């Protein structure tokens, strides 16, 4: 179910990454983690594409405006990782 949800978010948000790579990233996480994949223009704003991982399961990919907070507290995770991929 989770990878199917991730695949849907990838298509909806036109992100150039595949669900299997998201699963690979999730497998490397040892706690609840937000992974900033990179910047993407979305809904006429420059946004961060953020993969949320809980218990080694990729939960969702959310888009957050660059002007919004992207802290551990605001994302509700224990760790924040920035990859800055070309997505």
Structure in a nutshell:
This protein is of the alpha+beta class and 87 residues long. The protein is 28% helix and 38% strand.
What attributes characterize this protein structure?
87 residues, alpha+beta, 4-stranded mixed beta sheet, 3 helices, 38% strand, globular
Describe this structure in words.
Strand 2 (45-54) and strand 3 (57-65) form a beta hairpin. Strands 3-2-1-4 form a four-stranded mixed β-sheet. The protein has helices at 2-12, 19-27, 72-75; strands at residues 33-42, 45-54, 57-65, 79-82. The protein has one domain. The chain contains three helices and four strands; from the N terminus they run H-H-E-E-E-H-E. It is 28% helix and 38% strand. It has 87 residues and is α+β, with helices and mostly antiparallel strands. The mean pLDDT is 93.
Summed over residues and divided by their number, the pLDDT gives a mean of 93
Q: How do the strands line up in the largest sheet?
A: 3-2-1-4
Number of domains: 1
Number of helices: 3
Beta fraction of the residues?
Answer: 35-45%
What is the string of helix and strand elements?
HHEEEHE
> How far apart, in Å, are the first and last alpha carbons?
23 Å
> What percent of the residues sit in helical stretches (DSSP H or I)?
25-40%
Q: Given the helix and strand composition, which structural class is it?
A: alpha+beta
Give the helix/strand layout.
Blueprint: H1 2-12, H2 19-27, E1 33-42, E2 45-54, E3 57-65, H3 72-75, E4 79-82
Parallel strand pairs: 1-4
Antiparallel strand pairs: 1-2, 2-3
